[in-house]
């Protein structure tokens, strides 16, 4: 981005810093929507290319960190709750009081939700 702006400046095309920031923001794809929405609240005077670049790098680092610590998700069952196992081991269910799972994965509640099968014979 800076290389492109530098080449444009070499040809006599100069842009204000805020315009450079808007150019960078508008080049981001949909996956950066949360960052773009956050940047819309920043006052125009504070919206500089350096500011946007630093926020973009911070967000990219945060995404990379989240990917590195992500736990592969299986189909959600009481045995494979999406919560980290260490967290579940020390917590108690708010519904039944048993340790080792959270309320959303409570077997007793899940059993109550399943319709009873009625056989006519």
Report what the structure shows:
With 121 residues, the protein is mainly α. It has two domains: 2-69, no CATH class; 83-113, no CATH class. Helix content is 50%, strand content 0%. It contains six helices and no strands. It has helices spanning 2-10, 17-26, 33-39, 49-69, 85-90, 107-113. α2 packs parallel to α4. The longest helix has 21 residues, at 49-69. The termini are far apart.
Structural category is mainly alpha
Query: What percentage of residues falls in helices of 4 or more residues?
Result: 40-55%
Seen as an oligomer or otherwise, the chain set is: single chain
Domain unit count: 2
List the secondary-structure elements in sequence, H or E: HHHHHH
- Low-confidence runs of at least 5 consecutive residues: none
The counted number of beta strands is 0
Q: Treating each run of at least 4 consecutive H or I residues as one helix, how many helices?
A: 6
Overall residue-averaged pLDDT value: 76
Instruction: Determine the strand fraction and express it as a percent band.
Output: under 5%
């Amino acid at each position: 981005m800076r290389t492109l702006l530098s080449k444009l400046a070499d040809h006599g095309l100069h842009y204000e810093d805020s315009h450079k920031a808007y150019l960078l923001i508008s080049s981001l794809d949909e996956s950066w929507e949360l960052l773009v929405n956050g940047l819309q609240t920043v006052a125009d005077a504070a919206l500089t290319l350096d500011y946007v670049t630093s926020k973009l790098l911070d967000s990219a680092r945060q995404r990379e960190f989240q990917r590195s610590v992500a736990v592969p998700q299986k189909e959600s069952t009481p045995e494979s709750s999406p919560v980290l196992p260490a967290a579940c081991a020390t917590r108690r269910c708010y519904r039944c009081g048993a340790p080792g799972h959270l309320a959303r994965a409570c077997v007793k509640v899940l059993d109550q939700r399943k319709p009873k099968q009625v056989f006519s014979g």
